[in-house]
Backbone:
């Protein structure tokens, strides 16, 4: 499998390798044509703290952000958006922030979270980042297991981080 990404300065598309898996989805950069599907995925995947349409549109267009999408076959010659990951970069730092991984509820448990995490790490490296950070809900056991299995280390707890008052656990991995 490969992942398409762009350099922050030139926004050129590049193909990067990602660990191959049987019947792996196609991973590519999101385009404005993906906006409706990304908004639908956001609301299907998250019960609260959903990104608004304008925030998703901004992320797709931003030179300091990357939105990756996973497409899976949905019949002969047809693909459907089944997962997405959003990364943020700040000028003057060598770390990237994974602000979201969303997987379609119909694909939960299929390994897409790990595939998107690997694609996010590949994208961060392609932009010269040496670390990837993220926040996860303290009650998101599946997410915590995913990150820890992939070598992420918890380094902070942020009380009252989410809309409903749930704390966030901050993780980081050296790339």
Residues:
């Amino acid at each position: 499998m490969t992942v398409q990404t762009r350099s922050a300065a030139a926004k050129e598309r590049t193909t990067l390798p990602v660990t191959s898996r049987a019947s792996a989805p196609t991973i590519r950069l999101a385009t404005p044509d993906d906006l409706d599907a990304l908004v639908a995925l956001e609301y299907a995947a998250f019960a609260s703290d959903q990104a608004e349409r304008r925030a998703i549109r901004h992320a797709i267009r931003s030179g300091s952000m990357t939105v990756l999408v996973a497409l899976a076959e949905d019949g002969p010659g047809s693909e459907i958006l089944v997962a997405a990951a959003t990364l943020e970069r700040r000028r003057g730092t060598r770390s990237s922030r994974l602000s979201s991984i969303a997987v379609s509820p119909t694909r939960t448990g299929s390994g897409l979270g790990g595939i998107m995490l690997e694609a996010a790490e590949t994208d961060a490296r392609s932009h010269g980042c040496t670390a990837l950070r993220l926040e996860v809900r303290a009650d998101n056991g599946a997410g915590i297991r995913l990150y820890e299995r992939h070598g992420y280390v918890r380094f902070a707890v942020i009380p009252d981080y989410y809309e409903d008052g749930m704390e966030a656990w901050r993780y980081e991995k050296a790339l």
Summary: Residues 2-174 form a domain with the Aminopeptidase fold (CATH 3.40.630.30). Residues 1-22 have pLDDT under 50 and may be disordered. The helical segments are 35-45, 53-61, 112-126, 141-149.
